[in-house]
Amino acid sequence: MKNLNEIPVTDVKGVGAETAKTLKELDIETVADLLFNFPYRYEDYRLRDLSEVAHEERVTVQGEVLTEPTLAYYGRKKSKLSFRVASGHQVVKVDFFNQPYIKGKLAVGDEVTISGKWDKGRAQITASKYKKGHQTAEEALEGVYRLKGTIRNKTLLKFTVAAFDTYGDDIVEILPEKWLQKYQLISRKEAVQFLHFPKNPEDLKQARRRMVYEEFLLFQLKMQLFRKIERERSGGVSIDYDVNDLRHYIESLPFPLTDAQKRVVNEICGDMKSHFHMNRLLQGDVGSGKTVVASIALYAAAKSGFQGALMVPTEILAEQHANSLVDLLQPFDVTVGLLTSSVKGKRRREMLALLADGQIDVLVGTHALIQEEVVFQKLGLVITDEQHRFGVEQRRVLREKGTYPDVLFMTATPIPRTLAITAFGEMDVSIIDELPAGRKQIETYWVKHQMLDRVIGFIEQEILKGRQAYVICPLIEESEKLDVQNAIDVYNILNGKWNGKHSAGLMHGKLLPADKDQIMRDFNDHKIDCLVSTTVVEVGVNVPNATMMVIYDADRFGLAQLHQLRGRVGRGAEQSYCVLIADPKTEVGKERMTIMTETNDGFVVSERDLELRGPGDFFGKKQSGIPEFKVADMVHDYRVLEIARQDAVDIIYHEGFLETEEYAPLRAFLEANGVFGEQKLD
Ligand code: ADP
Ligand code: MG
């Protein structure tokens, strides 16, 4: 059997060196690339009963040329070629504009197929395409491919036909018969054939079903193998805490855990106790109580003789988390240390010495923690906060630091499940889907820019009540200058109005890190009433006295981001508000603003965001770790994704994937396609 990945596309009939260059722009270099480059849509040339075709719809008719084609010129270089065609019982008038050369090719009595736009009243077709004779079944649905350079759709289709004729039989089945039977899937070869040359919509449907399943299954197999290898890597720590002692800690918290918190604590502690490496994602909306959960895990680690680390994106967050953890853990003789870049000189050396000596149980710091010369005596647990921006690779680097501690990733961006199991497919996922009782809902309003004055009045009211406010301006990545200007303008307007009565602070990307920290601290200490900021206020910042979040040009943000920002308020006992200022131009834009005013539930917001923007944009521009599928669509095919995931787990854990003959073609395929990457199957 030939490996189509190794046969250059120039071996396909008709593809020369020049064409190969153009194809390369489409990432087509081998026969496999060509055969698996599928159309993204199909032109429908199927014949229909003319009485069912609506005015101005596209139509294809077949019949006999009744009248001699006549050519009329008008204007400069403009022409119209007209003739009549008998199609069934109906006579149809056909007009071709500006294609005079067709005249010589058609004569009375010829059988033709004509496609174009239907004028119902005049029984006329403004034709765009003709073919002498009748079209074949495969021509009725014509694949439309992504194109680049000079290559035309017809040409690409021709090459694909040639490739399939020569190499079609080398497209071997990789799925075991059992799975094909179970889901009634067509063969791999047929699926490729039907995706390129479908005879009818049913072909297409079956081909898609097969390919969607295959793509998801291959991807999930990769993720699950990765997960298995990671979990079972030798040297995993077992954090053997005392259950009763841990229960005592939990009972002495100032509040009972929510059911969701209890559930995730069980999941996390189960992982910690086992010899497997924990590799878990903890999702929970802002304020759902993740920090408390983290403290429980850290407590368990510390009391079992291990050290724990908590890493967060910014120094200010590190300080906040350290304070919370000191309050929670210190009464139980768990020592908490803070290591940021402002801990310097002698103090830093002392801190590092204490850490190496095992006298600090829990270390809090920024992500720089793992990159620096920090040595733990016995690191058993690493928790990171807000890590969703990191792709699979970065997450692996983190896990492989030093020994292999248990790792818990926390994120406050609710990630729709479909995305979670793709972007984080190699991880286990825990979800806190419940807020502690008695939380006040944040009231969200959407207003137009012309209401700015009233919004400022609203801010002032809150300030007079002793509260604080944020005004966030969007980060326009292409134009940082404009972006800063926006914030400065708003800041100046506020100062102009308030004239020293209330204090505003300004924060943007051009400030030095130390200045940014100072401003955040001043806001935290209520030296600033209203903070105007371009840089998205540090995720996770906690200033409970802030009750108002105003977002300028809110339509420039993703919904998940807006929800994150909104989560900066509503952290204290007072009623909080979120005001979105935006004049969206599109219906989708308006819908997005409306969604924000309708729900406070982060998971609802993120599901809607995914529907509206698609998976590629969900995590923003940064590396998302989301793979590109050729046929499958994570949003629309999510049910198949769930099934494929479960099947992948079954195949790997119960079906003897690595041993049995049944899976040999699948194993060979995965290996040949480098799906295992650097990973070794040992
Ligand atoms: P997150 O990190 O998920 O945003 P936190 O852990 O900071 O949330 O919790 C937000 C607030 O809710 C904190 O003040 C915390 O003390 C409180 N909290 C956490 N869990 C509960 C609970 N089960 N009942 C009541 N309050 C809680
Ligand atoms: Mg938090």
TrEMBL record:
Pfam families reported for this sequence: DEAD, Helicase_C, RecG_dom3_C, RecG_wedge
InterPro entries (alphabetical): ATP-dep_DNA_helicase_RecG, DEAD/DEAH_box_helicase_dom, Helicase_ATP-bd, Helicase_C-like, NA-bd_OB-fold, P-loop_NTPase, RecG/Mfd, RecG_dom3_C
Keywords: ATP-binding, DNA damage, DNA recombination, DNA repair, DNA-binding, Helicase, Hydrolase, Isomerase, Nucleotide-binding
Annotated SUPFAM superfamilies: Nucleic acid-binding proteins, P-loop containing nucleoside triphosphate hydrolases
Catalysis: reaction(s): Couples ATP hydrolysis with the unwinding of duplex DNA by translocating in the 3'-5' direction; ATP + H2O = ADP + phosphate + H(+)
A GO MF term: DNA binding
Keyword DNA damage part of the UniProt annotation: yes
Cited PANTHER family: ATP-DEPENDENT DNA HELICASE HOMOLOG RECG, CHLOROPLASTIC
Its biological purpose: Plays a critical role in recombination and DNA repair. Helps process Holliday junction intermediates to mature products by catalyzing branch migration. Has replication fork regression activity, unwinds stalled or blocked replication forks to make a HJ that can be resolved. Has a DNA unwinding activity characteristic of a DNA helicase with 3'-5' polarity.
Protein name: ATP-dependent DNA helicase RecG
Organism of provenance: Listeria booriae
